[in-house]
Amino acid sequence: MKTNIVTSGDQVEARFIGRLDTPAAVQTAEEVKPLLEMTNKKIILDCTELEYISSSGLRIFLSIRKEAAAHNCTVIVRNINADIRQVFMMTGFVSLFTIE
Question: Is the pTM of this model over 0.85?
Answer without folding.
Answer: yes
